[in-house]
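Standup notes
- HV: blocked on the assembly model, inputs below
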Amino acid sequence: MAAAALANGDVRAGGGGAVPRPTNPMVTPLLTDLYQFSMAYAYWKAGKHLDRAVFDLYFRKSPFAGEFTVFGGLEECIRFIANFKFKEEEINFLRTALPTCEDGFFEYLSSIDCSDVEVYAIPEGSAVFPKVPLMIIEGPVAVVQLLETPFLSLVNYASLVTTNAARHRLVAGKPKNLLEFGLRRAQGPDGGISASRYSYMGGFDATSNVAAGRLFGIPIRGTHSHAFVSSFLGLDEIIDKALSSSDGSNKCEDFVSLVENWLVKIQGASSLRGSFGETNQSELAAFTSYALAFPNSFLALVDTYDVMRSGVPNFCAVALALNDMGYKAVGIRLDSGDLAYLSIETRKFFCAIEKEFGVVGFGKTNITASNDLNEETIDALNKQGHEVDSFGIGTYLVTCYAQAALGCVFKLVEINKQPRIKLSEDVTKVSIPCKKRCYRLYGKEGYPLVDIMTGQDEPSPKVGERILCRHPFIESKRAHVVPQHVEELLKCYWPGNS
Amino acid sequence: MAAAALANGDVRAGGGGAVPRPTNPMVTPLLTDLYQFSMAYAYWKAGKHLDRAVFDLYFRKSPFAGEFTVFGGLEECIRFIANFKFKEEEINFLRTALPTCEDGFFEYLSSIDCSDVEVYAIPEGSAVFPKVPLMIIEGPVAVVQLLETPFLSLVNYASLVTTNAARHRLVAGKPKNLLEFGLRRAQGPDGGISASRYSYMGGFDATSNVAAGRLFGIPIRGTHSHAFVSSFLGLDEIIDKALSSSDGSNKCEDFVSLVENWLVKIQGASSLRGSFGETNQSELAAFTSYALAFPNSFLALVDTYDVMRSGVPNFCAVALALNDMGYKAVGIRLDSGDLAYLSIETRKFFCAIEKEFGVVGFGKTNITASNDLNEETIDALNKQGHEVDSFGIGTYLVTCYAQAALGCVFKLVEINKQPRIKLSEDVTKVSIPCKKRCYRLYGKEGYPLVDIMTGQDEPSPKVGERILCRHPFIESKRAHVVPQHVEELLKCYWPGNS
């Protein structure tokens, strides 16, 4: 990661383009609010544009009524400032947008980059808490203001969806496989790509999004949809019916008949008798066809017609035929209905098949569920009991439906070494002045106890020394802590020329 | 608009790259779910990949518990298919993602474009309703499946935010100025750019987003932030104090003193006496400095310290000084507190200034409000009474906070002229089979009465002829309509080679 490399000191500002451009080519210095430019002009006119300013980027409240946030988006911010430079056509556009500004201002804009800017940040992927700056940005006030909107745009959603993914992981539990399926419902194409990336950072195992897989090396997953199932009219559509065995030692010339024979055996099995009658033939054709294409990774969506009376028996017929040829079917996906009930019934069916036909391990065949899942529905499934191994989560994960925005802000805390504050009748909106240092204090058992902020020049907390930690706004909240380990939270990710 | 051009027949498929690429360069044929490729392979293996399929793209329920949706995203879909072609490196990535697929499949993928695809759609920006297809996509089943995810990704959020913007316009009323301020809170950079574009389509007047302004020709707006105000320490920071008059006829060498004199006059005015005492000098310096930079477009954020006791009097002092020099101040922005009360008090203050100092029109000075606004808060302001002229709306608009996703789906309705259906225990999830024609029927007064769908070969409704319209799922909902005007809803936007 570019940002990590910078933190390790491997790459320095001006090191010859070592930091790649932002992933999304639309992230340019114009991706900002117009007022950043009108302010820059006013600063420039007043001769204040080089005033050394310090801004904190922080949030006021963890999302989803939760107690933590996971910080995401830092690498993209570093990529952005490492490549921050206006193109001539961008300057020309700004001239039309701000027609009353003097030429000298546009010459100034043309000249700026981020070599005078310093960025300190908490490492991406860390658990972070309200009010403590995730990033401290120091530099000429006009330049740092131009970074406000792109930084917030790169951090707000990234942190929100990383946090959302981490919360889904916590409720699903470590052993479950979590798949991000949200591209089609995300807020625009880049929303989808960011969602895949930051869901993976937040603890997901894979995505359906091919572009994100390619860009970020995330494992990608996917099999087929309902449309695939309903596109088949019947088994006679399958022309090439041959399948070679897994080890290549033999070939079944008519895999379709093998499947049909297995379906008859399942229908006749005493332990399954009466649970279903005729299955849907277009579905059976689709499953068979898919298995012929992917004998090594057969996973079937079983709810196009009827899960227990058609989808699961059809799947088992194909899976047992594959088993004859030395292939192990992966499993099924449920995309509608009562997922707790259907997963339990499906598991029973799989176990009955294992017992009836002596196929060792068949009872453990994977069950994926994927219908409008979110934290609450997974929690409800856990409480009811279920047999789902993998969750495919889309809309609620990627749009952060329960809270669609994180309110990170970017506040001036110091200018020319003078502390600055934003007052407000709402005490939670009052900013905390001064350039800060931030520490995470750990207790005896190795767990973090508290994050504290100090002024830049105050002594740092020491291991074994008692320190009084005070809540910044609630006077009664205070505690003495004797840290066993002290971690400085913000590291330098962009040293500028300093 | 490219799409409109296509509908007019100006541009044809294969017309030599006449349709530009998607706005976001990240929108490539890989921006799709992996299962579209695994299905394509299974179709190809089964020799079914060229089967002629018809898919409907539609939604099941209007968002925000509302009665309408505004369709957005069509132009980007057309740009996407007009340029649909895999690059060699994309094919190479797919080979690694699907290692068991045969070479012939990747050769097939390399060869495909959308020249065999036809797209019919309702014009972008139209009011649309559940179940009626927004787009009908016909073509080889494997190719059309590859379009599913990118089309949904381009349409879902676009339509959602266009609808959200239109709803904000309806509640705010036509005369109000609506400004989209959401970039920093949007779901990623492209979410921000799309939000600006589609908010404008939905009835907003301008955006703060410079990049969106440049890309789409949307008017851009912006002045300054709280940080600008708090970055000033006092009036002695202002070095260049001179301001030429609007007509260039004279020059004020010390505009700062002119402002200070006006502040004293306002403080002494009988009609304003006692409403405030000393104002904040760092704020006064910031306002004065901003006015020196933008004398023609002075708009001040007045809530950094105290709206009525500092921000508004300081603004008026600067505005009256500008007035002396022939400039008309634009107005103020409120970003916190009780917006109804503060806007009314500010209006009273402006009117008192107009009367006290005889500055005609000063009472009508613009008041912008911008603190976490949404449909409900604007409605509440309307009910309380307020004096806001312009609303700046961010988070709730661009993230569609009240409902963060629209559930457009893409369903197979016909293959090789055979109707296909997706069944479900949930009747609202059952798809409506067959390729359709869709009409909007208008009544005597020129208002639309109903949208109806017919089979492709059924006779179309005729003006003046009674027709029975039936709800597709609720049998008791039916009505006879005698249309005075019949509009075919879907037009051909991409004719392929046909």
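- HV (later): unblocked. Chain A has a mean pLDDT of 93. The first strand of chain A starts at residue 52 and ends at 58.
- Next: hand off to the docking folks.
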